[in-house]
């Protein structure tokens, strides 16, 4: 009876509430991708080939190639598919060229005319106007640079179909006025990892906590094979995908570029946020960004779609795929759609409405088409402004305060050549001086001041004159510092001051920095460089990088002859580090001079590596010659062991044998993917072998088979959670037995946690630092003399006993209370005592030249990148190999944004590299990532020293 009465009530309740539940989880309405016809029936639609409709499933790379190939085969009058190069995982990257039949028939002539327009030195104004009046503009649409931003990949196929198949008047107008270049996938390898995983687990569950919205560490498809973020790589073009794309880009010289991304809360399109790179002509760029933004807004308003502009997506860092094209003269833009990727097939927003993969594809499709329509309507204006951008760049290079850059080969000509290769790949003109020359107003990058000097440069110096079409890009990459917009800086400082006034539990305002604020390539590569205010003519030879070559100018290494006593490898180049590592891996016997070495009639600096003929097989002669050529290292043959002077010769006790590095690199959930990737790529390119391991794998491994464990940058708290108390003690015991534990950035913070205690260093502003300061202050206070009754009843402990007790207490603490984990700032710290995170600034560090960790660095200071709030107090028990000078007379700041009355003040006296002896082994900390994005080459050997010279630390 009761059940009969309750059932109607429940039904009524459901009938009342169900519509509101449905409305609260309402999905975006389906979009019709085939409403812009009529379509040519001979052209297959993507779904006919794929077997599923748009947005119902994620398309893998091979299926996409089938779609593009079928469309191109059916529409040869409009479509060409060009192969532009293979990825690391052997997937071919494609550029699809689409235009009207009359343009397709003369593609090479169009390309040649646009190339002439790109170099105003080669044509008259009248000839430029003829090209502008008669030639189509070129638009570059690129998709899926982040492989897990999947909606753009699907949208690309729909755009290709629309342009190839539709006879709609607006589409035909696009084809007549434009040559459209479509990059089918900027990151094929990352995309393949993501879609293979997602398709295998997805059920279309919109709940944010569902498994399909959580990519495993090993999958993370945002990054490429080497786990690089390709949308940061244009700065130094370290990755093969970037090099393929840059080469194709410079072959076609487009006027409009769109890079398609995902997944913010709503769709984003320009205008871009501040800061804008000051090398861009503000008025021209702002005009076009606003024009495209308003056009997209009109289309989105008609669909009742949400979107935003400006906010955080800026045009400052020159490595993005919108800022790099912009510095080439195009209008470069980022579009970010709101679905797909890790949001999957369906995603529940914070208001419980649903965004679908299909709707996210539709938004990219509409934005792509509106961009093409807008460019077609303003074809002549866009071509004219492109020409003017390049023409005015040349004039600025002739008359501006900065006229020329000079790069010297120095002690590491290979590294200087690598920098020149970066410039050549970017289309920047570089020449090599055929004879010595002089500048009367030169500025040294290494100088602490701005006063010009007279400088004599040698033959062989590399010259970049700014009176060239690529002036703006060249200056953006090479200038010592790129200034930020004043209004932007003022707003960040205002937020900083407001944050300082907020209580410890109050939320803090976010800052507007989207990426690093300093990147000057001569400083990053650690080469001797100058910029000059004058640019007198110099007899020189223009340089070029032939297609497909890694380098056309890098010097080959060599050996001076066949040694009867020893070969000497001066440790002055990154190539020398590679040579040493490879010889050790092949079990050749090497030693290192720990002091200045005298041999062969001259002195060699500390860190010079000695390869004794008597201790190696005869194969050493041919092998060292071959590896020297491959690595670019210089090797010197010595035929007598007699030292003419000094106390160190080839046979001295201070020439110490090296150990073969057997390296483990942690590859697991706590690790920052791009830090691991930069490390992987760096070791790989220098031929250094290593074993990637998960933390669980490390716990099960025979650890004593390895003598180096590297923890890349990552989350300190997640490192602690993954290792646990037993894992930390495992690491400590292994190091005490002679292992070298290398901790980078966040991993160094993990090592410094009091409940880990792998170092005596503490973080500036941390609770641990504050507590230890209080304890030290208490110990320094005068204590009353104890009466006999109060006197200690036990003898004082020795230093060793105290250390053992401290370790026992530490172990007991770890087994009890939870560890102190980041955020590291002490809640009771006063404003100005806790570092604010630095958004990527270059600082000057001071080198201790008495430790093997700094072999190969004989200068006093070194430019390093600071990109965090991790400032380490000097170790109390170890060696602080690289520090930030406590002397206030020495300027620390070199370039980039720092916080006033905070960054420099709190960084002074802090350590950048620490060697903490632990039993027979070592724990080595790097406060920042020495391999940052693969382009911070100034610290490569500093990092290599931690495993090459572990025997002499």
From TrEMBL:
Composition skew (Acidic residues), residue ranges: 766-779
One Pfam family hit: Peptidase_M14
Domain Peptidase M14: 64-232
Gene Ontology molecular function, alphabetical: metallocarboxypeptidase activity; zinc ion binding
Biological processes, Gene Ontology terms: proteolysis
SUPFAM superfamilies: Class I glutamine amidotransferase-like (SSF52317), Zn-dependent exopeptidases (SSF53187)
Residue numbers spanned by region Disordered: 763-834
Compositionally biased residues, Basic and acidic residues: 806-815
Keyword Nucleotide-binding: no
InterPro entries in the record: Class_I_gatase-like, Peptidase_M14
Keyword Cell inner membrane: no
Highest taxon, organism lineage: Bacteria
Annotated keywords: Carboxypeptidase, Hydrolase, Protease
Protein name per its UniProtKB record: Zinc carboxypeptidase
Species name: Pyrinomonas methylaliphatogenes
